[in-house]
Amino acid sequence: MQYISKILVVAALALVASTANAQPPARKGDNNKKSNKAETTVVVELTERARSQYPATQTPQEVDWKREIYRSIDLANEKNASLYYPVEQIGDNCNLFTFLFNNILKGNITAYKYNLDGVEQFTEENIISIVDILDNYRIYYEEKEGEFFVGKSDIPSAEVLSYYIKESHYYDQRTGTYGTQVTAICPVLHRSGEFGADVTKYPMFWLRYDDISQLLAQQPMMTSSLNNVMSTTLDDYFRKGCYEGEIYKTVNMRNLAIAQYCKDSTSIKQEQDRIEQQLKDFRTNLWSTKSVAEMRQDSINAANDTINNSSDKPQKKEKAKRSASKSAKKEKSVKREKASSAGNSNRVSVRRERR
Fold it and tell me: What is the tens place of the pLDDT at every residue in 290-327?
């Protein structure tokens, strides 16, 4: 009996030991699950439905042609006015800058420095903090427990009178599509100096459009004074190219703005029109059924026609003069014949009367 009890005690001890040894791996597995869960919470993965609603705005990496340009959007332009009004937030209705500024305060959007060369650099070294934004542009705020609060009237949305945006025009031969996408946006503060001096523009910060597109898609906006229904969103506004702006720079090897290599306002306007025409011509010729050789020959023929027309102008004028002189001579001869015939008829009639 004592032997059986000893065996039972030994078996119980072995069972306890095996259970104790099995616990650490289980706990370790739980810890791994927790750590994996913590890691995955950093990256927000969208569902297939969300991806279809909010597709990526970045330009495809492997494209056959790409042209990147910078535009200045003037909010005084009627076509861009929907980005400016209402100047001060009314309920949930606010303008673009107020919407962006509030999300930066909440930490939903990362802002990047506007460097002197005007080129956006979306790197960790160029991230600008909300404190720097508030202090650099003298925006009144209150800080409570590490959070920043700015009143509606203190948000300088009325002074943000323009935006800089960067567009990417590209052609993807794999899909046979031509697209235009906004890749970056920068609010520009307009402030006058003391005693009403000249207005100075202050580009505030760059925002990567891909970071803010999903937020913009949730903000409705009104695009017409005749229809007050908020029928579109801020994201739709930029995707559809509803804005209007002048080109002030293109991506080039020398990193020069148009104003840096054009002498005056006339040459600047000509250069802007030339770039716009280049984009239009590429988009138009993209769907042409003619080959490259045929299009080249067409351009040569057009140039030759222009030269020939210019050289033929003196000859045409000379021919016109000759034909005019010939017609004048004919008219004179006709008049002489008529006059002579009329004189002969009178003579005959007189002679008959004498008889």
Answer: 655 665 666 667 656 655 655 555 565 566 666 666 66
In angstroms, rounded to a whole number, what is the distance separating the alpha carbons of residues 199 and 141?
24
Q: How does DSSP assign 153-190, residue by residue?
A: GGSGGGTEEEEEEEEEEEEETTTTEEEEEEEEEEEEEE
Point out the domain boundary residue: 241, 267, 293: 267
Residue with tokens 């580009």: 203
Cis omega (within 30 of 0) on the bond before 25? Answer: no
Strands (E), 38-93: 65-74
Examine the pLDDT at 174 and tell me if it is beyond 70: yes
162 CB contacts (<8 Å, ≥6 apart)? Answer: 72, 73, 74, 75, 188, 190, 201
Q: What angle do CA 201, 206, 211 make, to 5 degrees?
A: 150
Question: Whose CA is closest to 182, among 143, 222, 209?
Answer: 209
Tokens at 97, concatenated: 């800058």
pLDDT grade for 194, boundaries at 50, 70 and 90:
confident
Strand, coil or helix: 190: strand
How far, in Å, CA of 276 to CA of 67, rounded?
A: 11
Length of the chain, in residues? 355
Which ranges constitute the DSSP H helices of 130-264? 130-136, 209-216, 234-239, 258-261
Instruction: Note down the domain range covering 153.
Output: 57-267
User: Does one domain contain both 101 and 18?
Assistant: no
- In a domain, residue 2? The reply is yes
Distance CA 104, CA 180 (A): 26
